[in-house]
Amino acid sequence: MNDQNLEPGKYLHALAYRCTPALVGDATVHLRRLDTETAKLWGTFTNQCRKRFGKEEAQAPYSIATTVLQVITGGYVHFEPYGPAPFLVSRQPIDSNLLSKAFALTHGLALGQPVETIDLRQPPELARRIARTPEREFALKEHLAGADGEQPDAPNWLYQSAGWGLAERLAAVPFQLSNGREIMLRPDTTGGLVALDDPWENEGGGRYAVCRTAVRLKTLPNVQHPVLLLDARVSRISSSLIFSSTALAVQPGEGHPILEVKLNGRGGMKTIPRQTLEALGRLEMDYSILQSIAKRSQQEQKLREQARAFKERLQFPREHPGQIWPIPAKNYQHPIGTGVGMHHLRLLRAHADAAFGDDAQRLSMRQSTMTLPRRPTDPEKVSAQEYKRRKEERELTGSKEPLLSRGSLFPSAESLCASVDEAGFKKLRIACLWYRDETRQRMLQTFCHAFGLSPAGLDTQEGVELDLYQGRITAAFHYVPDFLRPGRGRDRAEALGAVGASLRSRDGVLVGAWCETEIPHADDFPGIDARDLDDLDAKPQTKAVMARLDVPSQYLKGRGKEGVIEPNSEDHAAQMALLDLYRSLGVIDERISNALQSKSSFPVDRLAHVGVHVRQQNRRYGEKGEPKIVVTATALVPPQSSQGAWSLLGWSSAAPVWRPYRSAQNAFHTHPYPEPSAETTSYRQKWDGAADMVERALGDLADELDGVPYTVTVDAQSARRMWEGLQNVRLGEHLGQAGTDGKSSRYQLPGARLGQDAPLAVIRLNTEDEEVPQPVSVTHLGKKEGAEPVEKDTSTLLFEVATDFGTPVWLLCNVPRAYDGSGAGRLGSKRTRWEAEKSVQSEDRSKRRKGEMPQNFYAMTATEILPIGGPSDEAREALSAMTARLCHQTLFWSDRSRYPVPLHAARQMDLDHPQYRREVADAEPGSGDEGEEAETTV
Predict the structure, then answer these.
(1) Among 237, 242, 250, 243, which Cα is nearest to 296's?
(2) For 115-122, which contacts have Cβ atoms below 8 Å and span 24 or more sequence positions?
(3) What contacts 357, CB < 8 A, 6 or more positions away?
(4) Three-state SS string across 229-241, please?
(5) 930 near 207, Cβ under 8 Å?
């Protein structure tokens, strides 16, 4: 370990280790690199499969060969036939004759040839060439030395195979709980670990989940070695195989990893691919575990058919999974919650330290010198003496008031008016559209909280304005059930009727609509296919109507799973909905301007800050055509004077003109998602076309800003397909190195070709849990000599990762509200799920307790912040701190967001689009979870 000789400060601990030659030791793999001719033959094979399947996006089903080889070799095989350097890598050597037969069977079966007619003595040229490709044994450590001042250049096959040996090292040491109990971790064929021998079971019995530990190799910016990232999660086990996407299977024999198998077929008919079984049967190999999966699928399909025939409720047996552990295809309701909790992750770090010993090198992450803005919702700060006095006084009086009061969740009325003035209006009117009286009362109650009004005697009249603040902010309530209720076969615009005319912003009045909604439920529409419920959802229909009227809108759910939502004293959903309406109106209040103030000499508060959101919209049920690319952007623009208000502009690929955010969002919502251009035929052309649009948008914005410098913030996951300069391996490359060969991206970075109008810096965010180190705790090293380190379980601070060269990268730690909020209970902070407390039923309310197993356990997350460019190190540090502050203070949420304000606002434009469908977790078919306490994932 390498924690000695650290300077005083706060240090973040994460499940991240440098993958050095010492860490992998003498581990080797067996590799075949496919040559160009073999890769071409695979491309021909893929085209043949596309013609046969009638799908342009279809791929040759190489999973047939991969599964066959996994069963034959014991498990560790990875085949990558695409990309610039295709390969086949395995832990054990593979006999060339067997390899030829496996790919001959894959080729013939994929093209529809009966298995018994495939001549294994005369394999196709593709199978022959793969088998003849020389197999070489490589020591992993030879590719991990790293070069000074450069990103890792390790080949792709190493990232796919290094986890095999590392997982076995982790499995060799028992995972020890705080109470001394030892948990057995078993390697799986993905390179991770699974605790199949110690599953979690619900209190009612018969429903299971298992702990899976991810072991991944990734890169971090300006760190010369690949980084080993560990993480743990709950994998819920399905009660059925036929509705699952994958299955974990215990292979016969000793020392084999747990086999992860992809299942094939439509929902309700999932099973092992027939071709895989036929291939293994033809090779006369032991594939009993796959036969067991196929047999179970057949049995479950019979049960389903019987239930349909007799019109009975489908119920699968509740029993221990045994050798086959199905994993659901989607997030259904389940009586076991998600997340392993903070305590589990800290134990995982101790486990890795024990398994790797001195071979492991941790990454150093030290707190950055940044102060977070005080949010209105933060508790007040008082001296220790005053806190003690209040505590004693409360004990004497028996008061239940909190010791530290919180400010208002809402921006002040004055700052709302200032933002409305900046937008060119004199007054704000909120039109409240409702169809349940309970929802009307909740809206009115929320206005009382937001504007300090007394609810006594306060009520509403149809269409009559209610003064909320000095005549400059008002509300008008309209009862429009035919417009808002779920259903089809009605003209929503006609149902809105005369109310629609009063919603337009004119005569100096800015209008926003706050509407009631609900997610349609199958019980309310007998005979409707569950997949057609989206068509009954009134929200996307009414939002489109509002957008055509240029009325910003936001929605409040009036009915949930338990029925109609009644007014209560702390209506968090209503409060968030009102704040989100302010966001849709483009209101930028004093909370945001306060967050942008900085003590740094670099003036982040005099820059405009742009957020660009990119998403690929895949086809949904019943849709045809190519996937669509959706691009939205916002610009947070500073005021011209120190007394002015910030403003927010918006832009979208559907309506590519910069305009006030409220109008840009409405213009976007009046159009369907843009269809792919008929001229862009390749993957590269499609994403270069999207980058072209953003380049033109930034050029137009530069004209709009008239000399004001700006930054651009993007999400690494979605944006690096457009700009390869965002990839770690491309950091620092010059503009001239951008690709023109049709394979590399045309643009290195957003705005890179705009010359003097280019952004001052590009800020790359990464929130992907699979690529960002998982934080587990913080150590505070004091300045006094001999002072004992102070350990803390969580942190919300910004930490600078010590890099080997180039510019630093920062991690912003986040603590979920569900973990640290009022009454959250911090589940998982002191014990793992193996030690979860059971529920207690009692006539004495004080002794009752909910069981912990159904609840979600939460953990810290981290947002990676990397400023690219910028005039100096000081500027980059100031930009990272600014980004953190704009995550800390959001537009419409009482806590943090994973994205800063400009990127979050751009993302919400997309998420609010009428074509973006809402989803809710249903009960899994045949699980029996409908009446059981279950956590849902929405």
Answers:
(1) 242
(2) 115/275, 115/278, 115/279, 115/281, 115/282, 116/282, 118/282, 120/282
(3) none
(4) EEEEEEEECCCCC
(5) no
Inter-axis angle of helices 437-451 and 572-584, nearest 10? 70
Give the sign of the dihedral formed by CA 126, CA 127, CA 133, CA 137.
positive
Question: Residue range 183-187: average pLDDT?
Answer: 97
Are 775 and 795 contacting, i.e. CB atoms less than 8 angstroms apart?
yes
β-bridge partners, 628:
617
Beginning with the edge strand found earlier in the chain, give each strand of the sheet holding 427-434 in spatial order.
465-469, 473-479, 427-434, 509-517, 553-557
Spatial distance between the Cα atoms of 569 and 680, rounded to a whole number of angstroms: 55
Residue 723's CB is within 10 A of a number of other CB atoms, namely 29
**pTM (2 decimals)?**
0.91
As given in the structure block, the two tokens for residue 103 are 């790919």
Q: How does strand 9-14 pair with strand 775-781?
A: antiparallel
- Sign of the torsion angle spanned by Cα atoms 658, 660, 665, 670: negative
Q: Are 542 and 556 in contact (CB under 8 A)?
A: no
Backbone angles phi, psi at 352, to 5 degrees: -65, -40
Q: What type of residue sits at position 600? A: S
- As given in the structure block, the two tokens for residue 105 are 């069977």
pLDDT score for 28: 97
Query: Residue 853's closest CA among 867, 863, 838?
Result: 838
Digit-coded pLDDT (tens) for 814-842: 998 776 655 556 889 999 999 999 998 87
- Cα–Cα distance for residue pair 580/344, rounded to 1 Å: 35
Tokens describing residue 691: 């980058």
User: pLDDT tens for residues 66-88?
Assistant: 999 999 888 899 999 998 899 99
Give the residue carrying structure tokens 């049967």: 281
Q: What angle do CA 811, 815, 819 make, to 5 degrees?
A: 160
> Whole-angstrom Cα distance, residue 438 to residue 425?
32
Q: Which two tokens stand for residue 247?
A: 């299955």
Per-residue three-class SS string for 519-542: CCCHHHCCCCCHHHHHHHCHHHHH
The contacts of residue 223 (CB under 8 Å, 6+ apart) are: 18, 151, 152, 363, 801, 803, 804
* Amino acid found at 544: A
User: How much of the chain exceeds pLDDT 70, in percent?
Assistant: 93
What is 600-650 written as a DSSP string? SSS-GGGSEEEEEEEEEE---TT--SSPEEEEEEEEEE--SSTTS--EEEE
| CA 785 – CA 798 distance, rounded (Å) | 26
pLDDT at 608: 97
Structure tokens at 129: 């060439």
Going 69 to 75 to 81 to 87, the CA torsion angle's sign is: negative
